[in-house]
Amino acid sequence: MAPLAPGTTLDGRYVVDRAIARGGMATVYRCVDSRLGREVAAKVMHDQYVHDPVFRDRFRREARAMAQLSHPNLVNVYDFAAGENVFLIMELITGGTLRELLAERGPMPPHAAAEVMRGMLTGLSVAHDKGMVHRDIKPDNVLIDASSRVKLSDFGLVRAAAETTQSTDQIVGTVAYLSPEQVDGGTLTAASDVYSAGIVLFELLTGRTPFSGETPIAHAYARLRSDVPAPSSLIAGVPKLFDELVATATARRPEDRFRDAAEFLAALDDVAAELGLPDYTVPVPRNAAATRAAAHPTNFGRAASAGGAAPAASSSSTAERRLFPGDDAPTRVSPAAPAAPAGPPATPARGQWPAAGPTPAPAPSPARPARPPAPAPAPTPAPPRRAVKPVSNRSPVGVAVYTLVAIGVVVAVGLGAWWFGSGMYGEVPEIVVPA
Prior knowledge:
This protein is of the alpha+beta class. The protein has 13 helices and 9 strands.
């Protein structure tokens, strides 16, 4: 499917601004809803799915169900269409993904991992209550919005794609997070999502996924032969209660796991309470692709609300960065990062994570209270002051001449006074000089 040009209108309502994510199944565009004047994300299906009648029917059914789900921990679906273009209109997230947060900060301490999982499992439990199965739980599909709220994305789409006849000969999902029943063709239930969520918790705590293989298929089948190791065996500082959470969530038999996301969430809350984990605010990734895409402002909202076409968007490559890196649903089996070598527990690389207490959201910090004044230092004796010469704008020669003139005037006045007073009339005695 050729990319939609900026200014294209979907369903006579949604004006395309620019592509912000591309995957194997769909392309996500930033758009404006010309009726409501708000920015939205339009996920437009590629041609190979659009022309499959089975997929179109299932997509329509799934999209209607998802549009009825509205929760702060889900990326909400506002609208859908299955005409010439098959697309979903979704909430536009301008934060980042859990994958980006892990890349920035590394393995999480327990209190941070618990808060991320709490948001993700809360959203997942809403869908499980409606009988829906996500089938592609992974850090790429967990978003953190600008207010630090954790949101789960891409419900329904994965299931619709997995059931299409075009996918029956392939394992559908992301290899590192597949449940055993996704690999061996068993029945998928809410417990399948629980397994994938357990892998996510393992990765949050250790910074890696538990299995590896020389090929994607070998990687996928490794979970049929081995249990997920305890996180504390790979990295120091993980409480044993978290080991037990991961072990239960990732049990190979579905009946040995938590039944659904709500049961997993209840167990997580019990562990957090027993360990006394502090409240925590999940930080927004600082260098997220969504943030870079949102840094390109447009005037499309003003143009669309006025009934005109949206102006063409910049073709800069940064404007094409991915907003939803997990939007490739269904993701085919693909290689994963190699597993870390076995050995003694490593020291956690958690320098970017505070030890306890909430992390402030990326908003202006409130003013801090003024610190008490520091005590005044002990007085020290002042150094002796040097004499300072007076400064004059007169030259030394001029001062000397002026002084001599003044003295001469005083002497002349004195002599004149004497002459006219007594010297002029004085008698001079006769002086006789002998012959």
